[in-house]
Amino acid sequence: SFPVSSGPLAYAACQTACNYGAVTCYSLAGLTFGVTTAAAAATGPVGWWAWLTSTPTSTIAAAAACSAAQGTCMAACTPLLVAPTP
């Protein structure tokens, strides 16, 4: 029998777990992960800047920490791409 490279499936599962963790982290901070209003999307970077300057520092810090944790988690998934599974 030949080994099957299921690395991409393991990688996808790992990425999904990272995203689930990010959603949970943002939720605990009182934020909604990956969602914006039509008005905020229409204003683009100005809307983002307005949010940044009008949002409490603790909320911004929580969002930054959640984002950093998600990035670290996703980077840890990378070796799974090449992991062969017999």
General description of the model:
The chain has 4 helices and no strands. It has one domain (7-75). It has 86 residues and is mainly α.
Question: SSE string, helix = H, strand = E?
Answer: HHHH
Number of domains: 1
Overall mean pLDDT stands at 78
Dominant shape: elongated
Beta content comes to under 5%
How much is the radius of gyration in Å? Answer: 17 Å
Describe the sheet with the most strands: none
The count of helical stretches stands at 4
Number of E-type strands: 0
Give the N-terminus to C-terminus distance in angstroms: 8 Å
In short, what is this structure?
The chain is mainly alpha-helical and 86 residues long. Helices cover 69% and strands 0% of the residues.
Summarize the helices and strands and which ones pair or pack.
Blueprint: H1 7-28, H2 38-43, H3 45-54, H4 57-77
Helix pairs in contact: 1-4
Structural descriptors:
86 residues; mainly alpha; 4 helices; 69% helix; 0% strand; elongated
